[in-house]
Write a structure and sequence with these properties.
InterPro entries: AB_hydrolase_fold (IPR029058). By secondary structure, the chain is mainly alpha-helical. It folds into 2 domains: 75 residues, no CATH class; 79 residues. Helix content is 49%, strand content 10%. It has a 3-stranded parallel β-sheet, sandwiched between helices. Helix 2 packs antiparallel against helix 3, helix 2 runs parallel beside helix 4 and helix 2 packs across helix 6. The chain is globular, with a radius of gyration of 18 Å. The mean pLDDT is 90.
């Protein structure tokens, strides 16, 4: 609309995600979220998928609930109903990503990247994230941040991420 955009920050997400989003069904989304939340291990999430697919959503959630560490459920203040709601929100975000196709450009983008869900960090950066340069009229910055895709905003990493993020805002005059 003609306004100057001084900062566009992208956090560990590639511009072309639609294909990846089409690969994720409800069960996969629920297991990914459960893994991100620390309710199941990555190994368990991968192993559970085939056995859960024929079950109802309610049955799937009950199994994940039973496998979840009680102290983590308390820490997140989760109930089965809240977990179901959170899974539905995550599913809605996945559905949004299925039709996402970025267009246009901004003056510059700042891309923050962490260890990806799969593959190497350099492959993630060079093959998945660098295409953001096509949406930036200036030279984008790519900033390595601590943690993995699902932990970069965890208690252990957020203080450092906040400092890095703030420094990029300041570099953009904000």
């Amino acid at each position: 609309m003609g306004d100057e955009v001084k900062f566009t920050g992208l956090i560990n997400i590639p511009p072309h995600i639609a294909d990846r989003m089409h690969e994720i069904d409800w069960t996969g989304g629920m297991l990914n979220l459960s893994y991100f939340l620390g309710l199941v291990s990555k190994h368990d999430a991968n192993d559970l998928a085939p056995a859960l697919k024929p079950l109802t959503k309610t049955e799937q959630l009950e199994i994940v609930w039973k496998l979840s560490p009680p102290e983590r459920l308390v820490e997140l203040q989760l109930t089965p109903e809240k977990l179901d709601h959170w899974v539905n929100i995550a599913g809605s975000l996945i559905n949004c990503g299925k039709d996402y196709n970025p267009t246009g450009s901004v003056s510059v983008v700042d891309v923050f990247y962490a260890i990806p869900l799969r593959g190497s960090k350099s492959d993630w950066l060079n093959n998945q994230l660098k295409p953001w340069s096509g949406f930036s009229r200036g030279e984008p910055t790519y900033t390595d941040v601590p943690g993995q895709h699902y932990t970069l905003m965890d208690f252990d990493h957020v203080p450092q991420f906040q400092k890095i993020f703030r420094s990029r805002l300041e570099a953009r005059g904000l």
